[in-house]
Design brief:
The protein has 230 residues and is of the alpha/beta class. It has 2 domains: 166 residues, 3-Layer(aba) Sandwich (Rossmann fold); 54 residues, no CATH class. It has 7 helices and 11 strands. The protein is globular, with a radius of gyration of 20 Å. It binds magnesium ion (MG).
Length: 230
């Protein structure tokens, strides 16, 4: 009888929460290559045009060090110090090229998985991303794809919050697999630190928990994915 009840409860849980895999995709330079630039004028009058994520991260890192800022995302602090940081290109999807090595996987929607687009973009970026996905034939509503913007904050923190979202009777998260597609070195390092090397969530992880990061690498002849595990 007890076994029957346990099986029944398991069945109920599965019925209500069959999701065991989170698929998390970055947007810029992961799903699409865009021509977005960030234009900066520093308080000393110097200007810079940052053409890609790498240039953006290097500039912000150097400026934060110069100003003694230690936050994960220094953009807001720099703005408060008088840096004029024009991020308006990121409220549109500018001249996009689809990165098919990633979107071919995005389109698969495996059973028991939930798909998120998690961009670090700030401001009103969700609408244009949903429209772009629609344009390339990915219906976010039909496939229950959630588009979220971390506004520059830690994606690792977002993932830990997702794992805590549904905790089973044994105290473990129902999520036993996270697949994460990302091009940014900084975001990958953050997720490895928060999800792999975080003692605070050891008890939350199911025994078979797996994080697989697919780093999006650009080559002359296209894009490749490099798997990274805990
Ligand atoms: Mg990116």
């Amino acid at each position: 009888m007890k076994l029957l009840l346990e099986n029944w409860r398991k069945y109920l849980n599965e019925d209500y929460e069959p999701i065991t895999t989170l698929r998390i995709f970055d947007f810029d330079e992961t799903i699409a290559h865009t021509r977005s630039e960030t234009r900066v004028t520093a308080p000393d009058g110097s200007t810079a045009t940052l053409g890609d994520q790498k240039q953006f991260e290097e500039y912000m890192k150097a400026a934060a060090a110069k100003e003694g800022i230690e936050t994960f995302d220094p953009v807001r602090d720099l703005q408060e110090l008088g840096y004029n940081i024009d991020l308006s290109d990121f409220s549109i999807v500018k001249d996009p090229d689809e990165i098919t090595v990633v979107t071919d996987i995005l389109r698969q929607f495996p059973k028991n998985s939930k798909t998120y687009i998690l961009t670090a973009r700030r401001g009103n970026s969700i609408g244009p991303i949903i429209d772009y996905l629609d344009e390339i034939g990915i219906d976010t509503r039909l496939n229950d794809v959630r588009v979220m913007a971390s506004q520059g904050e830690s994606k690792g923190d977002v993932m830990v919050a997702m794992m805590k979202n549904k905790v089973m009777d044994d105290g473990k998260s129902n999520i036993n697999r996270i697949e994460y597609y990302e091009d940014s070195e900084k975001n990958i390092a953050d997720v490895l630190a928060k999800v792999c090397d975080n003692k605070n969530i050891n008890d939350l992880k199911p025994k078979d928990f797996e994080l697989v990061i697919y780093k999006v690498l650009k080559f002359d002849d296209g894009y490749k994915l490099e798997p990274i595990t805990c």
